Fold these 3 entries.
Entry 1:
Amino acid sequence: MRAQPIEGIERIEAWFKGKAYAMHRHDTYAIGRTLAGVQSFNYRRSRRDSLPGNTIVLHPDEAHDGQAGTGEGFRYRMIYVEPAFFQDVLAGRALPFLEGGVTTDPRIAAATETLLQRVGHTLEPLEQSDALAELAHALAAVAGMPQARGKGDYFAARRARDYLHANFTRVVTLEEVETATGRDRWSLSHDFRTFYGTSPHRYLTMRRLDAVRRMLLSGTSLASAAADAGFADQSHMTRHFLKTFGLTPGRWLQIVGSAPCDCSPTIVQYGPLAAAYS
């Protein structure tokens, strides 16, 4: 099941048996709750196992895969949050990082309760905003982050993010970004990773892939979606799509395009629904 994305937050619930999805990475936080079974994944060079009631917190740009830890399969809910939402709350502090990928900390469990409700529940705008703020503060507290801002120029990084967001469908030069931010490219790259968890180019590529997903769901062809989103060609887009989501655009569209909203979860023996988002 998947909810309609609202304000940059995506919410899904899924069930898998066997292998769920290949190694991939994305530029959002992936935060979820295992509901049944054993949810296993490789993350930061180790296998992790999440049991029912555990909370999963995957940092942006960290590679991971997914599979059932037992023959019974597993069921989970997950939200995908753009780092910029947490930055709005943390006001320039470095992004929280929780080592391990799985936590039983009650502060994180409590802070995710609202956002990890059943997919059929529609979150009101203020409800979602308050829940994101609570989650950002809980992540920072559990990560042991200081109250002071991280080292770097947060406002330059935010100007770079806004500029890339507004111009992702075309080639953006380093000189343009330097001019737009008033920061040299090397310092800006460090700032961007500190405050948004990924590189400027990776952020640009992800915005193009977001546009491709929207266009594919509306019926646009692969070639047209690739060109309109700013990729050199369809094969260029497909390579990035596979590396990011763990499956090809055609396979993603086949699964996600038919996934129900607000109804019983789609059972997938192999070929991940969640790889499109996890």
Entry 2:
Amino acid sequence: MPNDHHNAPQTGLSYYGLSLLSYLRESHPDLADDADFIRTRAQAAAEAYSCIIRSGGSRIEAAEEADTVLYRGLHFSLYGTLANVIRSEFADIIPEEDAREAALILLPQAREVARSYELADDFAATPQYALLYTELTGTVQILLDNGIQ
């Protein structure tokens, strides 16, 4: 049976909308079915591009600004970090091919852990990242110990 969750917001999307949808499916799958979010971001990116071009900027400058608008606040992925924790720390329990699905299942618990952190675009480059990684590792271990798989 096809997964309608992944196909629903795709209809009629612009270049920016499709680019964002593809990125969300990889890094923020919990947002991939938010058609309003995707449409709003895509429109803002297209407007940013047009604005730079109208003001005499180059296509490269316009594309860079559009990408900045499109991906603002999405560079750090809690889901991606959780998937990395599962792949790196629990490879003996959760097979590699199941790591992304497991991360999606455990994402609500990971969000609870991450609430005390400021998850900005550059978060992975901060000292706090190691603390979050350690907390996520402990959380996954507790969940596995309690039979949640």
Entry 3:
Amino acid sequence: MKKIFYSICFLIIISCNTSQKIIQTPAINAQQSVELNNIDQQFLKRKVAIARFSNETQYAKGLFYDKKNDPIGKQALDILSTKLTSSGKFILLERESLDLVLKENEYNQNFQKIGADYIIVGSVTEYGRKHIGDVDVFSNSKSQIVEAGVSLRLIDASTGQIIYSEEAKGEASTTTKNVMGLGKHAGYDSSLADKAISTAISKLVENIINNCSDRPWKSYILSYDENGIIISGGKSQNLKAGMRFNVNSIGKKLKNPQTGLMIQLPGKKVAEIEVTFTGGESEGEFSIVNLVSGSINKDLLNTYEVLEIK
């Protein structure tokens, strides 16, 4: 009888625990950590602005719903901002700069006003919470499941073209069990919304990084006079003395009559430059460069772009 009693107690202790889905991150050894740090140092950070993150679902849209203070949209925006920043690949623009994007009626060349390389537009397309119960003879369990769908678009600020668009879904759940009336009771878990949205966004952030990495880092010539050549970008974007870049003429822009969108043709390389000094702070960073080869017309600086050598 004692063995049976102890066995029942053991089962009660195990079954009363609360279970949650957890995503394990593989451990990184010392050598891999050094390699990742070297990659980050060589990677030229892109400037990104998150134009908006809207809630396209009907969740939390009651009588007094305020579109500007939507909790789901803000939640998703904060999660995306945190993940992009923690990746070490991007510089996110301040909210004051993002307000310029919100005033635009259409995606066009005016995106260049905000000084971003890329614009991200996101929306929560699906959101739902459900409860599932399971009752046995001596035990019962209750599960809360939250499912979220997130859509992101990555826009090239210099052309206004959408270069990446995808949707992903995430799920988070928690389960409580009790046996013979003993155990925890399931309460409302507000953290599940964060976890579900975070899971969906995580699936898309890596693709955003890959799409930006596949395209060369871009900058522009600010001035060219007796003091030298000055380009935009500096230390915070990982520019260092000795780095070399191509200077290309900006390709001609044509309108596609079939889609109505502008298409920019590839430009031609006209020169190569080398960084000798980086200075400035925040949005005012700059780099002084020397002309290694080719030539640059001082009177036509707005017709050139500085590109990373791939």
